[in-house]
């Protein structure tokens, strides 16, 4: 599935950049899970894992976090 990512994205995943915000770690884990997905069910598991991780963030969610969660939820319905 790594053919879905740009060479720059693959390099960042392999390099192990920590990210700068609390959402970066979640997105990085999602990218890793999604790149190792073997089928649609694995992709949906990665989506669900990301939604759960966003829900577990402490405090008020940023607009980006709320928007990303809604996108992942909508993706599950397709």
Could you explain how this protein is built, in words?
This protein has one domain. It has helices spanning 7-15, 22-35, 40-55, 63-77. The mean pLDDT is 87. With 78 residues, the protein is mainly α.
Any descriptors?
single chain, 78 residues, mainly alpha, 4 helices
- Percent of residues in beta strands? under 5%
Mean pLDDT score: 87
Helix content: 55-70%
First-to-last CA distance: 20 Å
List the uncertain runs: none
How many β-strand runs?
0
Structural class: mainly alpha
Oligomer: single chain
User: Number of DSSP helices?
Assistant: 4
**Main β sheet profile:** none
Task: Map the helices and strands.
Elements lengths: L6 H9 L6 H14 L4 H16 L7 H15 L1
Helix pairs in contact: 2-3, 3-4
Short note summarizing the structure:
By secondary structure, this protein is mainly alpha-helical. The protein has helices spanning 7-15, 22-35, 40-55, 63-77.
